[in-house]
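G., the chain you wanted modeled:
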Amino acid sequence: MHSKAAKRRRHSDGLKAKVLIECDEPGASVAAVAQSHGLNANLVHKWRREGRPRAAASEAPPVDDKVAGAFVALQLPAPSTQQASPDIRIDAVWLAVEPIDMRAGADGLLARVVQVFGAAKSHHGYLFANARGTRIKLLVHDGFGVWCAARRLNQGRFIWPRHGVGSTATATLTQAQFNALVLGLPWQRLEQMAVITHV
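Predicted structure as tokens:
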């Protein structure tokens, strides 16, 4: 009697990306998307936890003139595949160039995003700062609804891009620089600060 080991079916990165994009659509059912591709829903849930296949670094989204005047796209390195999957996935980050009144809640921030972009995209984060640079808010659309998180500095200020600072609509930051930015540290000078040249 011969027994053959069951062969694991391999799926291309292209199929995975397509399935995950379909799952990200508002109102999409993971089970229905899985069934339409002849896949097991548990497998698709696993792909969602692992995140979609991506290149070595996240590419900054395309920027049109209207967006370029109001937001700066941040290009961050892709997270390590060994990192635990976050509860809220963020694939792209946008920094609002103009300050915003921090009394604005999720609805007010969402209105600003829709005014500029036309829609808030799934798994995109939108960062806002107040005029004094002492508070920031992050708005994230997770595919089902929006999350709004706030951070306030008791001392110092967030170093934020403003109109007239640089001519590009895209800024490339390392993970360390981004972490420093949201902590209120001088993220532009991290490399210089890592080396002591005088006593």
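The beta strands are 71-75, 92-96, 124-129, 135-141, 146-152, 170-172.

Shout if anything looks off.
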